[in-house]
Amino acid sequence: MKTHALALAAALALPAAPAAAQSNIDGTYVDSGGYTEITVGPCGNARCGEITRIIKRKPGEPNRDVHNDDPALRDRPILGIRILKNLTWDDGAWRGEVYNPEDGNTYRTEVRPARGGALEVKGCVTLFCRTRIWPAAD
Q1: CB 84 within 8 A of CB 51
Q2: pTM exceeds 0.90
Q3: Cα–Cα distance between 60 and 72 in angstroms, integer?
Q4: In angstroms, what CA-CA distances link 2 with 5, 8, 13, 68?
Q5: pLDDT in the model for residue 16
Q6: CATH 2.40.128.520 fits 24-134, yes or no
Q7: Which of 25, 17, 3, 2 is closest to 119 using CA atoms?
Q8: What's residue 21's pLDDT?
Q9: What is the mean pLDDT of each successive set of 10 residues along the chain, which is 138 residues long?
Q10: Which of 65, 99, 60 is nearest to 82 (CA)?
């Protein structure tokens, strides 16, 4: 009994192992080209990001999802498209998918907070990745 009490006291005296802090990415950002505003927030048990404002039009591009692989979606407006999908916290980053309306493809993504309130968005295909920084919207 005495051994049990000593073991319990010793266990309680040890500092708890720190849990990896889940970084907050909720907010509004501007894509790296300055064309759209993306708002990130909860969607079910995950995080998602949706285009919530068109800042300026891309030269020669309509405001429709014309590059989408699915012909049925090519006429939908860019405004309101969910481009960050199913982001869940895993091993120090938010992981899920990112949709790129410029080419109509969806990529694996890792998302993290960056300096100055910005968001680091890394999209990957197989071993090739590209990282973009989305500054916080004003």
Answers
A1: no
A2: no
A3: 21
A4: 5, 10, 17, 69
A5: 39
A6: yes
A7: 25
A8: 64
A9: 42 41 89 94 96 92 92 95 96 94 94 95 92 94
A10: 99
> Which residues, other chains included, contact 85 with Cβ-Cβ below 8 Å and sequence gap of 6+?
46, 48, 96, 97, 98, 99, 106
Residues in the chain, total: 138
Q: Which residues, including other chains, have CB under 8 Å from residue 47's CB and lie 6 or more apart?
A: 25, 26, 40, 41, 84, 87, 88, 94, 96, 111
Strands, E, within the chain: which ranges?
Answer: 27-30, 36-43, 46-54, 82-90, 93-100, 105-113, 119-125, 128-134
Residues contacting 110, CB < 8 A, separation 6+: 93, 94, 95, 122, 124
Q: What pLDDT is recorded for position 130?
A: 94
Tell me which amino acid residue 42 is. Answer: P
Work out the angle at residue 137's Cα, subtended by the Cα atoms of residues 133 and 112, and round it to the nearest 5 degrees.
Answer: 35
Q: Name residue 4's amino acid.
A: H
Residues 55 and 111: their CA atoms lie apart, in Å, by 22
Query: Two tokens at 76?
Result: 């939908």
